[in-house]
Amino acid sequence: MRKLCAALVFLAFLPAPQALAHKVIASVYASGDVVEGEIGFSNGDMASDATVEVFDDDGNKLGETVTDETGAFTYKPEKAVPLVFKANLGAGHVAQVRMSAEELPEIGGAEATSPALVAAEAAAGAAEPASSAAAAPGASAGSSGVDLAALLEAQHKMITEAVQKQVIPLRRDIDAYKEKHDMQSILGGIGYIFGIFGVAFYIAARRKMTAA
Predict the structure, then answer these.
(1) Domain for residue 137, yes or no?
(2) What sections of 78-134 are H helices per DSSP?
(3) What is the pLDDT, as a whole number, of residue 113?
(4) What pLDDT does 49 receive?
(5) What is residue 69's predicted lDDT score, i.e. its pLDDT?
(6) Domain hosting residue 100, numbered range
(7) Which of 11, 29, 67, 141 has the most CB atoms around its CB within 10 Å?
(8) Is residue 43 a contact partner of residue 51, using CB atoms and an 8 Å limit?
(9) The sheet that has 72-75: what strands, in order across it?
(10) According to the model, what pLDDT value does residue 77 have?
């Protein structure tokens, strides 16, 4: 019985570092010609002044940047390759997030090549009349098509960036909610162990009193 009680006490006080530690949250998204990112913890604390190293999929280091006081950072890619962002936050916390080549922003000031814009330019070129008399109306129509496609592309980028910036704090709130409930489950488990220990102690005491 003493061995059982000792084992229960040991289990009750056994720590769970990974479960109790705050989870690291890292996210990146394209914004204009740069990659913007944010690193923090699920409890709402942000990783300020943290060095963020940038690698490709083969582990070659491409550069690095530093987070500001809000945990945000920017990085301007020079190659159209997948990027892996890593930051060692100490105490065993490592932030890592990957951005695929398709998610990268425009590199080197390249012109946009969205399907809508390409299609509009192709239509404008095909509609160019052979006669000089009809050239002006055709060019005007083609120009309007390209302008409309470019406007839609810019609007799509603005909406995407706005949604991404709103999703980041929402994701952090969800992780914090999950962590809170994980902690409640751990504390509930510890209380259950103490309850078993109390019942075992009571039975042992009753037996000792009966034997006496």
Answers:
(1) no
(2) 115-126
(3) 45
(4) 95
(5) 92
(6) 2-107+149-211
(7) 67
(8) no
(9) 24-31, 34-41, 72-75
(10) 95
Residue pointed to by tokens 């060692």: 88
- Residues across the chain: 212
- What pLDDT is stored for residue 16 in this prediction? 41
Interatomic CA distance for residues 66 and 53, integer angstroms: 9
Q: CA 37 to CA 83: how far, in whole Å?
A: 12
On whether residue 31 sits in a domain, the answer given is: yes
| Bridge partners for 64 per DSSP | 53
Would you call 85 exposed, middle or buried from its count of C-beta atoms within 10 A (0-12, 13-18, 19+)? buried
pLDDT reported for residue 133: 46
Select from 28, 38, 39, 41 the least CA-distant residue to 178: 41
Structurally, the chain folds into a number of domains equal to: 1
In a domain, 67, yes or no: yes
Could you tell me which residues are beta bridge partners of residue 31?
Answer: 34
**Residue 38 domain-assigned?**
yes
pLDDT along the chain (212 residues), means of 10: 51 43 80 89 86 96 95 93 95 91 77 46 52 50 69 77 64 62 64 75 78 70
Please state, in angstroms and rounded to a whole number, the distance separating the CA atoms of residues 32 and 157. Answer: 8
Question: Which domain CATH number covers 163?
Answer: 2.60.40.10
pTM of the prediction? 0.50
Does residue 203 contact residue 11 with C-beta atoms inside 8 Å?
no
Asked if 146 and 123 count as a contact pair (C-beta separation under 8 A), the reply is no
Contact between 33 and 107 under an 8 Å Cβ cutoff? The reply is yes
Contacts of residue 69, defined as CB under 8 A and 6 or more positions apart, other chains included, come to 46, 48, 49
